[in-house]
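Everyone, describe these structure tokens:
***
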Amino acid sequence: MNPTDCYFAGLDIGGSTVKAVLVDAAAEQAGPPVEVKSRVKEGYETTFAQLESALDQLAAGAGIERSRIRGVGLDVPAPSSNGVIWGKANLGDDWVGTDIRGELSARLGVPVYMTNDCNAAAVGEYALRKYHTSSLMLVAPGTGLGGGFVLPGGRVYEGVNGMALEVGHVTVPFREEDGSLPACSCGLTGCAEAWVSLMALRRRVGIELAKPQWAAHPLNQGDLTIEEKAFRLRDFAAAGDELAVSIFKQQGFILGYMIADMVRVFDPGLVVIGGGLAESAFRDDYMKWVEEGFADRAWAVFRYSPVEPEKQTTRFEWATGGDAAAAIGMAYTARELFA
């Protein structure tokens, strides 16, 4: 087959949907993206059938035979190494310990690359910035706090065991008002994720609403659950609500503070902030708070060049790929590896 006639697919497995993207040999998107229902709880064989359905739809949308898809990039919402899932996360039991990459490759008859979802999103953000050829670090506050690092040229840095860039579990020197360190979902205390994540937001909302000064706050009225209160907090922040703004300001500052330590290690030049806040109405304010935290902790040389004082040595940008970033990253990677 002529190499220019080949196509490459990116498959992003989520808890509720599988998102899929197809690119050609020139790394240009071919046909529309595809989304199918995810059935990860039912086991990996069931999910494989869903992946094949997504590939069939990608091929049909691009007007090609599926046999012209010559490589697949796959990301999973769980820790893995060399194609083997290490932890269950939100997957079914039979995923753990299975060579998912090898099994899927054998089933499809094409080579497969596999990584985690944060790594995939980081590569997606790199691929979408065609002007950018140096490194990129993605930090994505969501249910937890994930990260990914892309080397110059577009290869993701995974570490020996596929566990690199667990940025949410970098310790930050912040304490609760009583002097305690907040517990993290990983079992440690004082992690960045314990301050900057949806889980942290729920804890902070509960703490603040228990204070007398917020007794009359709208979120203290009615019988909303703490999950519902945390979910609504973004709308309150967009409207300038004092409580909501103070909570997000603290999160943004701590995120920037943590990023400063990561920049001292990796010196990425470009830091991309992902997650749902990338589409929030108050994202300009949030980015300002992130940059304030960064400025408080970062060495001067990681802010501006000592030779060219007006040149920023670390830039911040919002993610642009949205929900499709991980699938885009995997299609891009498959093309780079298997073309």
User: Anything to note?
Assistant: The mean pLDDT is 95.
